[in-house]
Amino acid sequence: KHGLQEVEHVIRVLDKFRSSIKVNYSMGFHVHVNISKLSDSQLISVCQNFIKYEQAMDTLMPPSRQKGNTYCKSNRLAIEDMVGGYSEDIGPLLATCYSKEELAERMCPNDRYYKLNMRPFLAFGNAYKPTIEFRQHSSTCNKLKIKNWIRFCMSFVHNSARLGPPGHMREEVDDHKLFEHMMTHVVKDRYLRGYYRERSMKLYGEKENCCDGCAHGGGCDARVSKSDFLHLLLQHNS
Predict the structure, then answer these.
(1) DSSP string spanning 4-15?
(2) What's the predicted TM-score (pTM) here?
């Protein structure tokens, strides 16, 4: 809570310079989550859940932050290459990691440019951070997007570590059902579930993208209607 209050203070300061701040599709909004108190097995659970739900998280992002972006590559595809494309072998492969360092090498082979960057705690000296980095979100100055994505990342890590290793999906599901499963069983936040349902619909609902900003990753140009705002507010307070 204290951290989000600091974020709100930074956003208020940035608002004073909003007219001179520009974002574009080549930029991203990166969130670091402290994992210094997580055991090796807890961090493995976080990674297993990330691989399991990566495609669901893709539905929350504009196309520019998905396939083909060399600065936020797919962790899932990287590990599938190690297991010959057999996705059911990914969880067991991660479970055999004997250290956080080995886990980081498997999740992010060769460099840090993955959706979930595990390399900050491998660095030395001033570059060292006891964190993992969520790199996928597009750049934004929107306070609601910033606070909600931080809240999502924190909930995802905390609950993944607390709940232990995830099970396999009993049947093949589409991205929509995978999203609902992730929000219900991992993130466990009714407000965020409603918010990101709305976000996904704006990106990939009746129209391919809700606006040019979303299409190119530069931040949503649409304005939230009064009814939409009240709907989100009621969910937030429920």
Answers:
(1) HHHHHHHHHHHH
(2) 0.81
